[in-house]
Amino acid sequence: MIGRPLSRVEGPLKVTGRATYTYEEWGAGPPLHGFLVEAAIGRGRIAKLDTSRAERAPGVRGVVTHRNAPRQGQPQPDLSPYSRAFPVLTDTEIRCFAQPVALVVADTFEQARDAAGLVEAAYERTEGRFDLAARLDHAYAPSDVQGSTQTDSLVGDFDGAFAAAPIRIDETYTTPYEFSAPMEPQCALAVWHGDAVTVYASTQIVAEAKLRIAATLGLVPAQVRIIARYIGGGFGSKLRVHAETILAVIAARQLRRPVKVMATRQQTFPLAGHRPAAVQRVRLGADRDGRLVAFGHDPILQASFTSDFVEQIGSVGRALYAASHRRSTHRIVPLDLPDPEDVRAPGEAPGLLAIEAAMDELACALDMDPVELRIRNEPAQHPELGIPYSDRHLVECLREGARRFGWERRPRRPATLRDGRWLVGHGMAAAIRPQFQARTSITVRLEPDGTAIVRTDMTDPGTGTYTIATQVASEALGVPIDRVRVEAGDSEFPVSGGSGGSWGATNTCTALLRACHALRDRIFASMPEAERASAGGLPALVAARFPDGVEASGAIPDMSDDPRFTAHSLSSYGAHFAEVRVDVDTGEIRLRRMLGVFDAGRIFNARTARSQLIGGMIWGVSAALHEDGAVDPRTGAFVNRDFAQYLIPVHADIPAIDAILLDTYDPHANELGAKGVGEIGICGAGAAIANAVYNATGVRVRDYPITLEKLLPHLPRP
Ligand code: MOS
Fold first, then answer.
1. Predicted TM-score (pTM) of this structure
2. Does residue 244 carry a catalytic annotation?
3. Residue 718 has pLDDT above 70, yes or no
């Protein structure tokens, strides 16, 4: 049962509109609707905020501003960034463009939105610091920042080895601001009952949302209940709740009515975190047979003055290739922009756009097959920590991908294969993403009628949690799929690590397997050995002996308390292959086909895993060719805040694409042998596209995304 390509068990609910997402929750009767009002400057203070016209508008019930917002807790640096207090509307200071300055609450969404336009604000501006490129010489080490974990990693004598290397690549790549932009925007409904609040929240991690709301509002966690049964994607932007949720809770308390706040698509861009733009220097020194002697990766990235978040871009190469002399660092430039946050594959996604393009440049400089270059630099053990890899099949991903893709038929020299106006190119890249684990507990019940009930506060942002938990319980308890009920996304249930960091599936399934084994042991303990082998299995034994059913729980520790995570270097791996065509007259870039081959240990569900991987690969195409969050350097505003202007691929951009999973088992990861699939798909995918564009055209664009105006001036003359 585990591994089978079962369709999503909640699929019928979703396609018939019966899966209740946060916006459709009703709670206790019809809620009021809140609409966020955004600051119109990037730095300064509110000089005047006149809400009187808004308050008199039809249907308006109240306006929350800094004048009437309650005192709130301050962020506690010792707490996780997702559960720290998140005070809103605290004062008149404006720290970034579109910072919420008010919440207008009315009977309908339309009334609230209309009245929000009647709030009159005047500002005193202060000169803002908005432009990363203009402030690179202000960069400093984040290790100077309290709470930061990003320290330099220096091994051997990088400078000496790089200077002495016969073949050197020293290039700088830039990666832009990017946004998670899940299908379902940020949303919350708050319903107070006395001094307790139920928050229907669109969140990836229920327990963190509960702690954050409690810490912000000065409540004890037991006063807060979170319900998040269905979530329309998150990709990092819902690891923590933001102003929409805090303001729903505040407004509902003030107005003594349930309040719902739904961000518009445009509002989500500055509201819910972004991937920081970065300038990444990569230096690779190799000997003439392609063996790396020096590996250097030095990203400079945007940070903010109000957050200690540093995307771990410089960490991605640390476990990837062998080289005796190494350096990888982070330097940050705080700007007056919204706080950067996790966006899918934080670190790896932008980092591999640089490293894997540089590896392609090195292969070209060596006149070597880029697949062979990577195989030649496969490390025997972690090159910086000196610990063994758990189970690593990167070379098999590379070889299997090359075989299936037909890599040996690629154009050996760039800009040599033509098909009419089209220049044709092939590219590839490797992928790595570390395995994480967060403390997770779960309960499972077996009822005398043969039903199994799994309970966890784990969420399902569309990834397949309900389905894979069903599969594990079915197999471990011998219960048919349709007799398993998974109840998730409710803070009344045992605390999990939630969905994020590619850890949700392995956390949930490992804890659940342990719970099922504990349940079996409990059942067996009550009977003589001979009786245990009943033909009907565990359900029959429960029916015969446990009129009230049996329950057991299972748990796994956080990775910081699990010796598995220090004994071995644990990661998922992959290899991407892409064919693109570039119109020699217009510079139009078209993906023709793409293949990813992945090693993520045992797979819980071949269908949902493939879906995640393909989604990640498409995101890689998007990072290479489309996504580009533009900041107006005068105002600090994100300019392209919708899907008309913030480009992402559409169906026509994604023709033949496939993801293959190697059938592996990592005994050091967990007892299921499974590792994460959520983020490995995006890792390296964009670099394969970039390398294919180079192979097609002979033009290397190091400033992502690769758009036609960057390519066109350099294309070979037709
Ligand atoms: Mo992911 S960026 O941890 O949702």
1. 0.97
2. no
3. no
